[in-house]
Write a structure and sequence with these properties.
The chain is α+β, with helices and mostly antiparallel strands and 120 residues long. It is 42% helix and 42% strand. The chain contains two helices and five strands, in the order αβββαββ. Strand 4 and strand 5 form a beta hairpin.
């Protein structure tokens, strides 16, 4: 009888732990979705800015989650006319076309990089 009660207590305990783990998982997913939506909405409501800028630095961040799955994030830091520095996470195709020291017209909206046209 006592063994059965202990068994059911353990089963109930693990059921509660699993339930709270699932609740926490979904809470995190919902929080991330809301945060992404808010960032997207803020960017869309920001004005499009065209300004002359110089490329100060380029860098990459390689995330090796496990051997077959590796992602690379590309970042470029620009210095705009008022000497403010802005870093953008950009696509690899854009990253390859930009070199440190380039000067040109930068177009961005909020924290979203749109385009950089190098001057000749």
């Amino acid at each position: 009888m006592i063994v059965i009660l202990i068994f059911f207590a353990i089963v109930i305990f693990f059921a509660i732990v699993i339930f709270f783990a699932i609740v926490i998982f979904f809470a995190i997913v919902i929080f991330m979705f809301i945060r992404s939506f808010m960032r997207w909405n803020k960017n869309n409501n920001s004005p499009r800015v065209n300004t002359r800028a110089r490329v100060l630095a380029k860098r990459t961040n390689i995330n090796n989650f496990n051997k077959p799955l590796t992602t690379t994030n590309y970042f470029v830091t620009f210095e705009v006319e008022n000497k403010e520095r802005i870093e953008f996470n950009i696509l690899g195709s854009d990253y390859g076309m930009i070199a440190e020291g380039d000067v040109g017209m930068l177009e961005y909206q909020g924290i979203r990089f749109l385009d950089f046209k190098r001057e000749n």
